[in-house]
Amino acid sequence: MQIQVVKSKIHRVKCTGAELNYIGSITIDEDLMDAANIIQGEKVQIVNNDNGERLETYCIPGPRNSGEITLNGAAARKVSVGDTLILITYAFMDIEEAKVFKPSLVFPDEATNLLK
């Protein structure tokens, strides 16, 4: 049997952009993606702490050390610049593997979105 567990989490980052006229996705500072073990094109769940919205999209890397967190396309309607977001990815694994698996949890500076 396989179960789905949290693989990665970027906790409490600020939305820095909302680009409606773009072809979907979320742009994430590539340093944050690396720290959280998230790869380009991976599905990510976005939880908006300010308005309760939850959505899924795929991620694309943004400039390193920029703190960029931009929602693109239709997802841009679900956020406002400055909203506090939690970004989560999941993985399927065997239950025994899941019992010992340790997710990559990242807690960036909440004012700048940069790694501490």
UniProtKB/TrEMBL annotation:
Record keywords, A-Z: Autocatalytic cleavage, Cytoplasm, Decarboxylase, Lyase, Pantothenate biosynthesis, Pyruvate, Schiff base, Zymogen
GO biological process, one term: alanine biosynthetic process
Cofactor details (free text): Binds 1 pyruvoyl group covalently per subunit.
GO cellular component: cytosol
CDD domains for this protein: Asp_decarbox (cd06919)
Pathway info: Cofactor biosynthesis; (R)-pantothenate biosynthesis; beta-alanine from L-aspartate: step 1/1
InterPro entries linked: Asp_de-COase-like_dom_sf (IPR009010), Asp_decarbox (IPR003190)
PANTHER family: ASPARTATE 1-DECARBOXYLASE (PTHR21012)
Designated name of the protein: Aspartate 1-decarboxylase
